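Handoff note, outgoing to incoming analyst
You'll be picking up this chain. Sequence as last confirmed:
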Amino acid sequence: MSDLTENLNHQKKPLAPKFKYLTGLILILALGAGYGYWAAASSKPTEEFSQWSKPVPVRVVAVERRDLSVELKAIGTVIPAHTVNVQSQVSGTLQRIYFQEGHLVSKGQLLAQIDPAPFQVELAQAQGTQQQNLAQLRNAETELARYQLLFKQDSIAKQQVEQQQALVNQLKGQIQANQAQVDAAKLQLSYTKIYSPIAGRVGFKQKDAGNLIQANEEAGLVTVTQVHPIYVQFAVAENYLDTLRTTAGKGQKAQVSAWDKAEQKQLALGQVQALDNQIDLNTGTLKLKAVFDNRDDALFPNQFVNIRLNAQTIRDAVSIPNDAIQHGAKGTYVYVINTQNKAEIRMLKLGVTSQGQTEILAGLNGTERVVLEGIDRLSDGQEVQIVQNSPQAVVSIPPTAG
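Most recent structure output, in case you need it:
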């Protein structure tokens, strides 16, 4: 037993120095790797992580010189050029209607027929009375001629001739009255046919055939509205009175466009027809009326439309987008990119604004580049990086001369 224990102890003794040697080797390698990583990291230059010290990416737009249209916006109401409430001028039974509701009719087109029989009877009576009096007149004129011959022969007294002459004159006057009665009867008979007084579109009929219609009835038979051409009435602030009067004084017609409620579709183009003769005291606005040809029936009576009025055109104006303009404590300004690709603050004097563009009266000459996007991180003298409009990455534009 003691021999076996001694053999085992003899076998374990050589393993202890090998294990210590292996552990030491691993420790040396780990220390060497750590030192190498530290040395490599410490050899790199220190990197600046401040975003404010880097060039700011911006998108720029060139200042333009172009004609700038001063456009005024308003809400308008479409009104027909003429509206007629067609009424009957005589009373009677409505026999027939010749129009279709909602359709266009021409001037003089037959719209309806009233029973003409009673008026034909009245005409016949007037004509009969006229014929009776004509016969009496002829007889009286024959008697007068005979009396005048007898008077020349000194066969009768002059008084008889004069009395016969008076009778002839009386009958002549009666004939004139009879003719007036005949003409009146013919006129009443003509009123049994109702014609359209204007060209336009008819509305809904107020009477059906077979009904009794009264003369000059308030409701009338139907309305006709003239829609070719058609008008739009709208109002603008009195501030633009001088501009509008100057344009009208030159004999020019200001252009007007009508748009739908969403201002997505242009309905028609027209021009200012007239300015009202006074300013509305309650609203401080001036009413205008524009005329549109409306051959495609894009505008409908009493329709609400958005109006864009080209009140004035400024020739060769220096202009920039509204979004590029900034407002600060010292006034209105923009950031201009100079030849070194650095931002500079430029104070401005503004003119009119129209269609997303603003006229620059002072501060820019039309050759600069102004910042449109990326303004929030800019400051005076800040270096910038110009972003192209294309989807490619940010690139730097080299400075340009001048």
